[in-house]
Every structure is written in structure tokens, then in C-alpha cells.
Amino acid sequence: MSPLRTFIVEDNKVIYDNLVSTLQELANVEVVGHARNETEAVNWLTGAGGTGETEGDRFDLMIVDIFLLTGSGLGVLKAAQDAGLPGRRVVLTNYATPDIRKRCAQLGADRVFDKSCELEDLISYCERISDGTATAPGDLH
Amino acid sequence: MPTPRPRPWRRAHWRAARWHMPLSVALAVLLAVGVFAGAEWTYQRALDSLVNLGGRDTARNALQTVMRRLLDIESAQRGYLLTGRAAYLQPYQAARADLGNAIGRLHEHYRTDPELARLVDTLEEKSLQKVSEAAETIALYDAGSHAAWQGLVLTDIGREKMEAVRRVADVLLATEERRIAGERAAIYRTLEVGRLSVHGLALLSLLAYIFFLRNNAALQASQVTHAAQLRAERDAFEQQVRQRTEELALLNLGLQELREGERGGLARALHDDLGALLTTAKLDLTRLRHALSAPSADVSARLQHLSATLDQGIETKRRLMEGLMPSALQNLGLQAALEQRADELHQRTGVAVERDLQPLELDASTRQALFAVAQGALSNVERHAGASRVVLRLSGEDGAIALSVADNGRGFAERGGSTSALGLRNLRHRIESLGGTFTVRSAPGDGTHVEVRLPGRERPTEPTALPEDPPA
């Protein structure tokens, strides 16, 4: 079973380190990219960073935090949506209000997970992508 | 405002005025008495002199009458002696009687002057001698002793007597003339003194008037100066009050921004540090659960309890953060924060909140101030208005930002535009410190309309930007 190529947008180093080790341990995840803010993330996705090489179509899953050091995860989702990237996009945030969930869905997010109480759901979602039981990209559930 | 103490110069001025007043009154009385007394004295002196002059005139006339009558007697005597006509005796008799009268008047006139009275006595004596000489010749003529009366006439006695009378009369006349000249001189002197004193008094009056005018002018000038000083003091006080008010407003604004900055910093620390630790703990718990493939019921219960405890911690952190600074405002902008606040109001109270929110790029202090206004206005709607519908508007036009909150609740009676009743005073201060306007319109039964306008402070950054550093 090939690992799940994952791009993570998270500005907090402590959370990022622990999230990566948790996902690697429990969900066969391979981290292919990491960004700390909106600009970095958009550059990574669209290849605007100067390398001329686009990484955007080489991830299976993108995990985005909404509140970033500069910019916001909403901008990252919009960039991915505008670029028409095929990978799944999920949001992991402390601020999973109905309004945010609605806006994220409009910007092409497949799922929105609460950082505090829906971590188990994120892990099982990753497992289901790996074994192919998860819903297709673009569907809400 | 403290009342300014009287100035030293002012007290001195009033002291001076206290003794100036009676002095000027005394001077005026003195002047009036002087004018009165001077005029009266001049009048009395002139009157006396004129009366004296009149008396001397009478005396001179009497003296001349004496001389004329003696001549009349002499010529009547001669006429009678030459013609023997009795017609000449009639003026003779009249002249004798008149002579007596005139001498009587002279006696009366010189009653108080012994020296001249003696001269009058001599005059009378000589006159009587002359008259008796005439009477004797006439008697001799009547008796027919022609040789006797001719002898008597030829003795030249009559001429001698007449000369003697004339000498005395001349002395008297000369004395009278001298005295009349004296009286005249006295009148001139009196008139001169009167004239001079009137001139002097007129001059004094003029001086007093000039002194009064100068005093008056000085008083008015000091009043004007004093008024100007009072005005200047008042202006200075007002300026000071304005300056202090501005300083206080700036201080207030600074304190508000400091407070917001500290709250934002605390919220950020809660999110970044405490939030990360709690999330990490949750991740560890998840890994632990997966690691324990078949935990005992007891361990399972412990893990469940730990998870619940961590969730409570996370929820507490979130509540604290939102209380300090709505994270939507900090991270997603004013529009999102207002949307969220409107949702909360609707969920809690069922009030329909109509929104017309334009996405704007604003700096942190503008964002926070506008949110504070919306928050305050919506709290009032919730607590006081009893409204069924609220309209929340945010727009940026021509570089100005306008936020309005209007409800259809019971409203309140405006009291001169006062906003203290609704506890909106601090918000008004804050908006005005930022150079904006704060308007509240309301009438009982007609809802409340709060409107804020701020000069444009949009800044060209990404809509959901976080500040690079926590505000100081």
C-alpha cells in the first residue's frame, strides 16, 4: 500500500511536529510538503516559488489550518480550487464554526475537522483514503 | 474653575478711591463757598463804596448850595441897597432859609468826622457873620441911616467875610474831592479783586474739571485693563481645559489601544502556546488509544476521562480567547466577526439580523473600534430594545467607513444627543479619538439607530491577515 502523500499547512511548530508523527504512526502518511503561511503554501501549490516545478499535482491530501501567521487557510483553499488540483483538501482548525465550515466547503474543502475533538475522525478519514473507502474528492461525506 | 484673587494694584486703587472721594467733595464745597463768599464780598464792598459816594455827593452839593446862597444873599443885599425895592428881599429871605438847611445837611454828614465837623462849624460861623453883615446893612437902610450902611459896605467887611467862607468851603471841597477819589479807587480795587477772584475761581473750576476728567479716564482705563485681564485669564483657562481634554482623549485612546494590544497578545499566547500544548496532548492521547489495542475497562475509562478533561481545557481556552479578542476579528476580519456576532444574537434571542456587510481592509485599531461599537449596540438591542429585527450595515464609500446598527425596538427619549444612558459614551470617545463621528438617533417606540463614520483607514493587505507582531 503506497503511502498517502500529504501537504500540511500549519504555522505552529509544536502542533506540526506532533501531527506529523501521529499521522505517520497511525495513518501511513508521507509528508511531501510543509508551509507555515498562505504565501508559502500557495507558492508550493502553484509552483510560483521560482523552481518552475509544480508540486501541486503530486499530493493526495492537503491538511490546512485556517488561522496562520500571515494570510489564512481560506486563501490556500481558494488557490487550490482555482488551480483545479486533484488532491483531497481537508481543514484542521480550532475554529470550526458553522460559518467557517460553510465557507471552507464553498472553497472546495472535502472535510473540516475540529483540532480538539475530531482528531480521531481525521485519522480514520486518512485510513479510509488509503484503503479507498472514503468518499470521492469533492463530495462532502 | 478657581476665582482669581484680587490683584495688589486693584486693592491699592480701591484704597486710593476711598480717600479720593471725600477729598474731591470737600474741594468742590470749598470752591462753591469761595465763589459765593467772593461774590458777596465784592457786592457788599461795592455797595458800601457807592453809598459813601452818594453821601459825599450830597455833602458837596450842600457845600455848593451854601456858597451859592451866600452869593444870592450878597447880590440881593446889593440890589436892595441900590434900588430900595422890596422885591430883592424875597430871594434874600429864601436864600437865608436854604442856607440854614444846607449847613444842617453838612452837620449831619460830618457828624462822625470831628475834624471836618469843626470846619463846618467855622463855615457856619463865617456864613452867619456874612449873613449878619448883610442883615445889618439892610436894617440900617430900612432905618434911613444911609451914611451908616454905606460906611459899613465900604469897610470891605462883607468881602472879607465872603473870602473867609470861601476858604473854608474850598478846604471842605478839596477834602471831599480827595475822599471821593479814595472811594472810587476803593471801588476799582474791589472790582479788580472781584474780577481776579472770579478768574481764579473759574480757573480752579476748570482745573478741578480737568482733574475729574483725568481721574474718570484713568478709572475707565483701569476698568478696561481689568476686563481685558479677566478675559485673558478666562481664555487661558479655556485653552488649558481644551488642551487637557485633548491630552485626556489621547491618553484614553492610547489606553484603549494598549488594552486591546494586551488582550490580543494574551489571546495569541493562549492560542499559540496553551492551544498547541492541549492539541499535542490530544494527539498523544489518540496515539495512546491506538497503541493500546485492547485496554482494560478501567484504563479505557481513564482515557475517556482524560480526553474529556482535555476537551474541557480546550473549551475553556477557547472561551477565554474569544472573551479577550474574537479570533474571527483578529484572523478573518471585521466582516466575518460581525457575521458571527449577528449569528450568535439570532441564535440566542431569535431576533432577525439583516446584514449588508461589505468586505473592507482595515487596520487593527479601526477594526477593533468598529467591532466594539457593533458589539455595544447589539448588546443594547439584546438587553433593552425588545426588537424583532435589526439591520447591520458596514460600507466603505469615498474613503470613509460607515457602520450602522438600526433596530425596530422601543427606542428611548433622546436627551440632547446624550449617549450615556446606553453606556455608549466610551465608544463615542473612542470613535471621536480616531477622528470619526458617532450618532445616535432614537425616539420612544421608533427604534434606535446608531451610526459611526470614520475617515478611511483601509490598508492594502490580505483580507484575513494577522499582524506580523502582537501590538505593543
CATH architecture of the largest domain in chain B: Up-down Bundle
Q: How much strand content do the residues of chain A show?
A: 15-25%
> Gyration radius of chain A, to the nearest Å?
14 Å
Shape of chain A: globular
Q: How far is it from the N-terminal to the C-terminal residue of chain B, by CA?
A: 37 Å
Radius of gyration of chain B: 66 Å
Strand order of the largest sheet of chain A: 2-1-3-4-5
Q: Can you tell me the residue ranges of chain A where pLDDT is under 50 for at least 5 consecutive residues?
A: none
Low-confidence stretches of chain B: 459-472
Rounded to the nearest angstrom, the distance between the terminal CA atoms of chain A is 23 Å
Element-by-element helix/strand order of chain A = EHEHEHEHEH
Question: What does the model show?
Answer:
Chain A is α/β, with parallel strands linked by helices and 141 residues long. In chain A, 40% of the residues lie in helices and 19% in strands. Chain A has helices spanning 13-27, 38-46, 73-83, 98-106, 119-131; strands at 4-9, 29-35, 61-64, 88-93, 111-114. In chain A, strands 2-1-3-4-5 form a five-stranded parallel beta sheet, with helices on both faces. Chain B is of the alpha+beta class. Chain B has two domains: 8-222, Up-down Bundle (Four Helix Bundle (Hemerythrin (Met), subunit A)), CATH 1.20.120; 331-460, 2-Layer Sandwich (Heat Shock Protein 90), CATH 3.30.565.10. In chain B, a hairpin with a 5-residue loop joins strand 4 (437-442) and strand 5 (448-454). The longest helix of chain B has 135 residues, at 157-291. Residues 459-472 of chain B have low confidence and may be disordered. Chain A binds chain B through residues 12, 14-15, 18-19, 22, 25-26, 38, 66-72, 74-75, 94-95, 97-99, 115-117, 119-120, 123, and chain B through 271-272, 275-280, 282-284, 286-287, 289-290, 310-311, 314-315, 318, 327-328, 331-332, 336, 339-340, 343, 462, 464-466, 468.
